[in-house]
Design brief:
4 helices; 96 residues; Barnase, Chain D; alpha/beta; 5 strands; 41% helix; three-stranded parallel sheet
């Protein structure tokens, strides 16, 4: 189980910093873009799925991660896309 604190997530870069440190400790890496995050979720970067991610203060992060990302024939908010990626890769995200 890993925990991310949404209070410190203000944009996409701070999300990657937060997830990296949650999984691999201070200064830890777990992707710097969506493709790299997906690669990390496939294993070999400090966590292998399935695992549980507790996302504390998730409402604050959701309010900030609103950038619309094109995915196929639709656009989706970054926060929601991250949740989709986690689900597809077997990560159980508990929003708190």
């Amino acid at each position: 189980m890993f925990t991310v604190d949404g209070r410190h997530i203000g944009d996409e870069d701070s999300f990657y910093c937060a997830i990296g440190e949650a999984i691999n400790g201070p200064g830890g890496y777990f992707g710097w873009n969506l493709d790299a995050l997906d690669d990390c979720l496939r294993g070999g970067w400090g966590a292998t799925t399935p695992f549980t991610l507790h996302w504390d203060s998730s409402a604050q992060a959701r309010a900030r991660l609103t950038e619309r990302i094109p995915v196929g024939d639709r656009e989706i908010a970054l926060f929601d896309l991250l949740l989709e990626i986690f689900e597809e890769r077997g990560v159980n995200v508990i929003l708190q």
